UniProtKB/TrEMBL annotation:
Coiled coil: none
GO MF: electron transfer activity; heme binding; iron ion binding
Lineage: Bacteria, Pseudomonadati, Bacteroidota, Flavobacteriia, Flavobacteriales
Native species: Owenweeksia hongkongensis (strain DSM 17368 / CIP 108786 / JCM 12287 / NRRL B-23963 / UST20020801)
Biological process terms in GO annotation: electron transport chain
Top-level lineage group: Bacteria
SUPFAM superfamilies: Cytochromes (SSF47175)
Name of the protein in question: Cytochrome C
InterPro entries: Cyt_c/b562 (IPR010980)
Amino acid sequence: MRKIIVLGCLIGASFFVGCNQTTEAEKKAENEGQPKELEMYEESELALLMREMYEDNLVLKTQIENGEIPESFPEDFYNIHTAIASKGMISDTAAFNVYAEQYLVNMKKITEASDKKQAKIAYNEMVMTCASCHQIYCQGPLPKIRKMKIKIDE
Ligand code: HEC
C-alpha cells in the first residue's frame, strides 16, 4: 500500500513536457535566429488524455514488473479517437486513427498475455506504438516514452 502512495506522489510531481519541448541546442539556435513568438498554451482534451495514459501505464508497468498480468486497462483510453487535439496538431486524421487503433490493439494484447514474460513483451510493444505515433505528431515526449519500457532479462 505504502509503495503505491509513494508512486502516486512521484507521478503527481513529475513534470509534463508538451510536444514542443526544445532541447538546449535548439534553444540556442533560436536565440541566434528570429525572436521566438510567445504562444498561449491551453491544454487540449487529447493532451490531458495523454497524461492520463502516461500515468496509468506507469502503474501497469509496476504491476507487470511485479509479475502480474493486468486484466484490463482504463476505458478512458478509448477516447483517443474522439478527444480533441490542440489546434493544428493533427493534419491527417485518418493516419492518426490508424496509430490510435494500433495503440488500443496493443493495450488489449497486454491483457491477453499468456504468461509474465509475454506480458512484459506486450507492454513494451504498446510503448513502441506510443513512440511511433509520437515520431509523427509530437516529438517532445519521446525521451519520456522510451523510458517507460521494461527491461527484460533473459
Ligand atoms: C495515435 C497517436 C498517439 C499515440 C498512440 C500516443 N500519443 Fe501521446 N500524443 C499524441 C498527440 C497528437 C499529442 C498532442 C496532443 C495535443 O497537444 O492536443 C500527444 C501528447 C502527449 C503528451 C504530452 C501531453 C501534454 O502535456 O501536452 C504525452 C506525455 C504523451 N502524449 C504520452 C503518450 C504515451 C505515454 C502514449 C502511449 C501510452 C501515447 N502518448 C500515445 C499522439 C499520440
